[in-house]
Amino acid sequence: IKRIGVLTSGGDAPGMNAAIRAVARSAMKRGIEVCAIYNGYSGILSEEIKVLNHNDVSSILKQGGTVLGSARFPEFKQPEVRQAAVEILKKHGIEALVVIGGDGSYMGAKLLTELGVNCIGLPGTIDNDIAGTDFTIGFDTALQTIVEAVDKIRDTSSSHRRANVVEVMGRNAGDLAIWAGISSGAEAVFIPEQDLSLPEVLEQLKKAYDSGKRHAIVILAEGCIKNGLVESPEALAKLIEVHSGFETRATILGHIQRGGSPTAFDRVLASRLGAHAVSLIAAGIGGRCVGVQQNRVVDFDIVEALETMKHVPALDLYNLCYEIV
Ligand code: F6P
């Protein structure tokens, strides 16, 4: 194999650059040329393609976001668009592709593999919602950002004797909320995967207030709003105010969670997964997605991952949130 491509797709995540670097460097070590494809799958169609050299990926390891740019590209669902993409890749001599992104990006990788371009999917998303891997690239950094923000919110909440509802990202997954809940010592955590007895939580918060507690942090996964468990962070804050005695505020952390320099954990994870993707491609293998399980790098059939494997949040950790409150 002489030349491969690399692209990032879907929502960006810290550590994507570390993955791009690992793919580029490890391919170059094997004498394989690497083409950067900019702005996700749409960059294939618009031919935003450039051959990378060793120095092009210098110093990107520590940068947040993705130097390749990212985009969601629903048009890629159309067979004629994918066929055109394959022709363009051929024209540029690109024989295989590493796709870094969420499971929407995996679907594109699966379809291109079926058309003869071997693709490998790398899990790049802060949501940690991809089947077949214990951790996705970006999750640890986003978690760190959330915890730093919640620690600050707790300081001011405590000064004013308030409860603060903090909405965190995660799309339909509660992983960020669970891990943030434990590491910030939250008094309550709401996740979309588990229905929670609201009256019980309100009662607990009232007890905390009556016992003289000066602050309460409630972590709300955004998925709870999408699936109707909670109307909004403000509505939940109002309920808490009415029932517990705490004055309340609501904070939506938003896109701050997607930025920033990746943690060492994310850099190492991205580097391991990127290098493994290249080793698969070099062996003529495609249609796989790569992950880490119990600290070992693994890979799976991408069709199997999309159709039969399901990401489940760590419910034991969720229970722990309430056990140590
Ligand atoms: O998938 C990453 C993510 O940040 C989700 O947590 C969130 O629901 C979504 O992307 C936000 O998307 P956008 O950046 O398009 O608003």
From TrEMBL:
One GO term (biological process): canonical glycolysis
Domain Phosphofructokinase: 3-281
Reactions this protein catalyses: beta-D-fructose 6-phosphate + ATP = beta-D-fructose 1,6-bisphosphate + ADP + H(+)
Activity regulation (record text): Allosterically activated by ADP and other diphosphonucleosides, and allosterically inhibited by phosphoenolpyruvate.
Gene3D superfamilies xrefs: 3.40.50.450, Phosphofructokinase domain (3.40.50.460)
Location in the cell: Cytoplasm
Positions bound to substrate: T125, I126, D127, R162, M169, G170, R171, E222, R249, H255, I256, Q257, R258
PANTHER family the UniProt entry points to: ATP-DEPENDENT 6-PHOSPHOFRUCTOKINASE, PHOSPHOFRUCTOKINASE
Subunit structure: Homotetramer.
Protein name per its UniProtKB record: ATP-dependent 6-phosphofructokinase
